[in-house]
């Protein structure tokens, strides 16, 4: 039997065993893959996110397009009714922060931040680059989970949103570890992201009331509100220009 057919049969077996599970990873001939299925929603989520099949199909299209353009995304190796199989991209950064030595946090986050700037320099955007949707493996960063990717807004607006989501996520997973976070964001600016960073700062000018509103919650607020304060704080105190 041809190699492709063996792989195809193996995927069918995994799909059968894990039908309905959102993601499952498996190994085939020493290589790791992920099978991702259409999201099975219950209750109110069915009303909030009505078309999960379209969402997965859109993600497949985006991954293929970005892959062809040379963006750092895992290759889609198989597509079936209600699922896709992608190559493993390595451990996601939120997991890595939990089980790697703190001395490695700075280089990992610098790499992620630089990779986001490079993606943006290719006139592309992710949609929701939170640390759980960015992977890192021996210095190589990949972006996964493109279901939130939007092509409706201008690319500049998408990139501004990407940067804000990314910074929010840094503060969410790292607590206010400002030194490490500010250094990582500086990497985004120096790697070609300066224009978007400045535009994000201008965008936030209208949200300064939120800075004062969120301040009392900066150490105690919930996992979404607390980082909002720190995102605003970041743009208030970071130097307006960086030395070359
Ligand atoms: N190609 C991949 N490489 C590494 N990890 C992956 C990959 N695809 C999915 N994962 C893991 O599975 C999780 C969920 O997959 P994701 O595509 O983000 O689905 P969801 O839309 O449900 O968030 C990711 O956060 C990551 O931990
Ligand atoms: Mg995800």
UniProtKB/TrEMBL annotation:
SUPFAM superfamilies: Protein kinase-like (PK-like) (SSF56112). It comes from the Bacteria. This is Serine/threonine protein phosphatase. It comes from Shewanella phaeophyticola.
């Amino acid at each position: 039997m041809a190699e492709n057919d063996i792989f195809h049969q193996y995927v069918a077996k995994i799909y059968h065993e894990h039908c309905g599970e959102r993601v499952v990873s498996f190994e085939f001939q020493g290589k790791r893959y992920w099978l991702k299925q259409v999201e099975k929603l219950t209750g109110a989520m069915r009303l909030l996110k009505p078309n999960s099949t379209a969402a997965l199909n859109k993600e497949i299209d985006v991954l293929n397009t970005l892959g062809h353009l040379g963006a750092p995304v895992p290759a889609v190796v198989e597509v079936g009714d209600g699922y896709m199989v992608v190559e493993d991209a390595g451990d996601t950064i939120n997991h890595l922060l939990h089980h790697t030595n703190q001395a490695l946090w700075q280089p990992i986050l610098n790499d992620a931040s630089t990779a986001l700037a490079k993606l943006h320099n290719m006139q592309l955007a992710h949609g929701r680059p939170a640390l759980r949707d960015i992977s890192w493996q021996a210095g190589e960063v990949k972006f996964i989970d493109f279901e939130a990717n939007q092509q409706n807004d201008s690319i500049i607006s998408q990139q501004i949103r990407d940067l804000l989501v990314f910074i929010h996520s840094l503060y969410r997973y790292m607590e206010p570890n400002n030194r490490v976070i500010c250094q990582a964001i500086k990497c985004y600016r120096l790697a070609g992201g300066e224009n978007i960073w400045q535009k994000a700062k201008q965008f936030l000018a209208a949200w300064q009331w939120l800075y004062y509103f969120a301040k009392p919650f900066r150490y105690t607020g919930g996992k979404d509100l607390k980082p909002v304060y720190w995102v605003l704080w970041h743009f208030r105190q970071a130097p307006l220009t960086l030395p070359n």
